[in-house]
Specification:
ribonucleoprotein; Aminopeptidase; alpha+beta; 5 helices; 25% strand; YpeA/RimI_acetyltransf
Length: 148
């Protein structure tokens, strides 16, 4: 049975393996910016979240067992602005409802904490994920362009 549980920041390392798969996924699908993902380091990226207290940070792991993490989501909020920073579901579990369950949990949490604006950043080449977020009600706002 798959269950979702919120984890404290000091247990964030349990999502490291799946986060690495997310990083590799983005590195592989990006025609122009794969190198940006290649250089990302889990500990450095997660260090950003250490500045948030437990009231403003939500980390959720979807798991079959203690050692089998199938998905995760990380969100924060400040004042009335929420941000879903990272979501990933193991490839062989996509389409099973895990991503939707994680997203709905985080959207509910952000709404309960008074967030009037909830954002998520998606790589422009990640078309399936963009469509997934659209089905949840997210709308495209801006596009960042880079000259390399």
């Amino acid at each position: 049975m798959i269950c979702c549980r919120d984890i404290p920041f000091n247990e964030i390392s349990i999502i490291k393996e799946l986060w690495e798969k997310n990083r590799e996924y983005h590195e592989n699908i990006s025609e122009n910016f794969g190198n940006l993902y290649a250089d990302l380091v889990f500990e450095e990226r997660m260090n950003h979240f250490s500045s948030f207290d437990n009231e403003h940070l939500k980390i959720t792991a979807a798991q079959e067992s203690e050692n089998n993490i199938l998905g995760y989501a990380i969100s924060t909020f400040e004042e009335n602005e929420g941000c879903i920073h990272s979501l990933h579901v193991a490839e062989n579990y996509r389409g099973s409802g895990i991503g939707k369950k994680l997203m709905n949990s985080h959207i509910d949490w952000l709404n309960e904490n008074g967030c009037k604006d909830i954002s998520i950043t998606v790589a422009v080449e990640n078309l399936n994920t963009i469509e997934f977020y659209k089905r949840l009600g997210f709308k495209e706002n801006t596009i960042e362009m880079r000259l390399m």
